[in-house]
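lol ok so funny story. i was supposed to be doing the assay writeup but got distracted and ended up predicting the structure for this chain instead. priorities right. anyway since i did it might as well share w the group, maybe its usefull for someone
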Amino acid sequence: MAEENSNGVSQVQKPNPAQEIDFILLLNIAIRTIPVIFFLIIAGFIFSWIYLRYTQVVYRSSCLLQIETITTTSFVGLKGTENNLSRELELIKSKYIIEEAVRRSNWDVSYFSVGKIQNTELYLSSPFKVKYLLYDNSIYEREFHVEFLDSEHFRLYFQEEDARWEISAKFGEPVKDKRFEFTFEKTHIPAIPGNEYFFLLKPVDEVVEDVTSRIGAGVVNADAKTVKINYDDHVFERTVDFVNTVAHVYIDKEMEQKTKATEQSLKFITDQLKIVEKEVQDAEASLQIFKRQNKIIDPDLRLSVIPKTQVQNQDAQKAQLELKLKSIGTLIEYLKSGKDIGMIIPALSDYSGENMPVQLLQELSNLQKRKQELSSYLTENHHTILELNKDITSLNASLMRSVEELQKNIIIKRSEIDKVDATETFQQEENNLSASETEFMRLKRKFSVAQSIYELLLEKEAQLAINKSGITSNTMMLEIAKSGWQLYPDNLLVYSMGPAIGILLGFLIVVIRYLMNDTVNSRNDVERLTKLPIVGLVTKARKESQSAFLYVIDHPKSLLAESLRAIRSNLDFIAGDETCKVVSISSTVSKEGKTFIAANLSAVIAMAEKKVVCLDLDLRRPKLNLAFGLNNNIGMSTLLSHRCSLDEAIIQTQLGNLNVIPSGPIPPNPSELILSQRFQDVLIELKKRYSVIIIDTPPLGMVTDGMHIFRHSHIGMYVVRLGFTKRQFLNTLNILKNENLKINFALVLNAVGYGGSSYGYGYGYGSRYGYGGYGYGYGYGYGYGYGYGNGESSGYYTEEETTKTEKKNWLIKIFK
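and the output, tada:
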């Protein structure tokens, strides 16, 4: 333990137990913490049950849709199907769809049943329904309580700032106030007697905001164009109903847009028909007037049939080109003005032969509709609107180039038709006609072209009417929401986490108790911390002594008495052939049991027919007189101060061989008395009279008086109370031993268990005797210190005794 430094001065090498793990102590702490861990596991399970019992459950339902999207061509710079699906998902989650779904579900009124701890929302299970008109928005979010008086009447009341508003009414009759008007109707759900009900009115905007935050949609398979809609709510049935409602609203909106587009196209065709019809009527009227005025017979009757048919075909082609030019002109006007082109797309659907980009036109129409929908709740600076504007601008520019090129091609075709002559025969025949007949033929051909355009428009109108009646949705509901599942909380996880946290806390307590354990708990601790010999192990008592005298007198056959007898035997080996053995007993601090061991060891030695005197030199806190039940009027303080003689100070006990000299009154100068020559003279005189002198000294860790007494002793017994003495005290003892090499130090382990549940060593006879070593068997038991006193500092404990302090400090004990 000691080594010399460079100056030749010996130094103590301090042990560092923190570097070692005491697995025995750790295991013992874990075993002693098992009840705490078990309690924490039960508490965690109970907490989990309470948490699940009073936590609102969140359910989720979902449905599956297949959405047909149009993929734009790459040259216009737009994204493909996946992006279109993403836009559809955004539309599904938009307030445009959610608000309509909320209105269909009538979620602006919520019904509740009052509970003892939490209220229960009555979705589709309320015994009444309310229709309302509000004239004051302050009524929103106010609890209107409904109390059923009988099968036809009820009481309505709510709490205002300074009073309670209340009225009795009849179901079906309006309840009017300047702020609202309610009409209550009973449902098929019977009211539960004694139940209290109330309802809340919520602004639709707030309901939409709340619902929007709890609805989700995602792409399941981009190739299959399938998306899933899910909704979370604490009412199971509502999750199923609402997710289906959202899907139906989305499909209905799609149908509505298609129907609206067809109706707009019909309106466009109808408007064109009115214009062309007037042209036909004007052309026909001009022809008839000219015919009557000039009395001309139709020259077609004299013209050849075959050339005439060719001319008629040319006129029909010209009529179709004129109609196309009209439609393209309207389309260019729409593109330049940024109008919705959806209404004219059906009129252009037959222009595929002219390379009309109908697919791109449809995509532009979809983008315009989407922007119109999103603009109802998004600002122009929103990233989605900005992206749509960018796509619309790019696609519009591409379409404008394509349509203008198409217009030029049609004009060229019309010019080519005008240049083509029918046949020479037909041309010669026409040249033979008179001027009036030639004019008649011109008017007739103008009428024919107008009539052809009119017939084409009629055909398109009929086609659009048929299409309108057969409009179907491109979205298919592959899987409707039939049931949901509990999303939160996860019962299994919560029931697992509660006990798991209890176990973790238990192990944390074990670690904390181990780290906070700075006391000596076992013989193994002592042997690791110091090399001083152990003279004996004193067990703890089973029962408290029935008298105020000595424990070994009342229980001579106890393990504690046997352990003291073993120390008595060892004194002979340690002190050798000394005629009178002087044994000083001390400890680091009070409550370690030095007085108790001094008194009972004196009694055990006296029982062996040896003359023993027990001195109390703890002049500051004397306790030996309490152990023997003596008064403290005279003693060592009066003896050392020459106020009494030795014979007057010595007190005879009931044991004939045992005398006691108590401390006497507490002196003002205890250290000076112990260091005086008088003390040495008294000690010399006592050696002449007694075989063994037992001295109860002051604690070495408190004052230095004990070291002076130890220098006059054959044996310096140092009491270490297991479970109480601090580990650093033993290091202090090593220093004292190193500084006082001539003192014969020996350790006594106090409060050692004897096979109990705590951590210590049990006493048992062995076959080996020697200095500092005995046949003590290992056992387990938690030791208490011994001593005497009449207060909290007595240090006297038994196995059955639990002090008030321990009861009060139960929380501290968990970690100690």
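The mean pLDDT is 77. The chain has 24 helices and 26 strands.
back to the writeup now i swear
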